[in-house]
Specification:
Strand order of the largest sheet: 1-2-3-4
Strand content: 5-15%
Largest sheet: 4 strands, antiparallel
Helix content: 55-70%
Number of helices: 5
Shape: flat
Oligomer: single chain
Length: 218
């Protein structure tokens, strides 16, 4: 036999508040357990993934070192046959006889300059700014000066210096030419990571890159 208990309004309010608080604590405990399980799952998957990735990284390094080692003799022959210095060429492309496979070896370079670059820049600026006679020439001067703008590392792009040299030669001005020469002589690039890129021709005759990084692989 069930006995009905009558509660006053105040007791009902307190009882509902008690139930709400109990439910709140239950949900908090449940979310805490979920976070604990989530963290445990992350730890488990990281522990499983890292050894695989380290192994793959070592394999890539081994293959990379092997390929550069195998092509060392070829690069030396290329230098001797063509009469070029390997230091003057940042990348080398080799294609097989039937033009179906291609491999590119090289190293990325980061532009850098010795302190004397500032003297060259000052000389170039002096000449360029002396040309600003009216609005038309000022616009041209500003366009040329933009070639001296610096990148995020505070350096001038080497490709822009080449453009300046052509302008200097066309102008025939000794100050302009000497300033660009000083900039060029100050150039001191830093060789960064070596790279390997490989391609093959697909059935349509188009060159396709072989994905060699985690990002490239679909």
């Amino acid at each position: 036999m069930t006995e009905n208990v009558e509660m006053t309004a105040e007791e009902r309010k307190e009882f509902e508040a008690f139930k709400a608080e109990r439910e709140k604590k239950r949900r908090e405990a449940e979310r805490k357990e979920q976070r604990k399980n989530y963290a445990a799952l992350v730890d488990e998957e990281i522990a499983a993934a890292i050894p695989q990735l380290r192994e793959m990284s070592e394999q890539l390094k081994t293959v990379k070192d092997t390929i550069f080692g195998n092509f060392k003799t070829i690069l030396e022959m290329k230098s001797e046959i063509l009469g070029i210095s390997l230091d003057d060429q940042a990348s080398h492309t080799f294609t097989n006889s039937d033009s179906t496979l291609r491999i590119m070896l090289g190293a990325n370079c980061i532009d850098g300059y010795r302190d004397t670059v500032e003297d060259g820049i000052a000389m170039v600026r002096s000449y360029i700014e002396s040309l600003a006679k009216d609005d038309a020439t000022k616009a041209l001067v500003n366009a040329v000066l933009r070639l001296l703008s610096r990148d995020g590392q505070g350096n001038i792009k080497a490709s822009r210096v080449l453009q300046l040299r052509k302008m200097a030669e066309d102008s025939g001005d000794e100050l302009f030419i000497e300033g660009v020469q000083i900039i060029e002589e100050s150039y001191q690039p830093t060789v960064s990571k070596k790279y390997i890129r490989a391609q093959y021709r697909d059935k349509n005759g188009q060159w396709k890159y072989i994905p060699l990084s985690m990002t490239d692989v679909d």
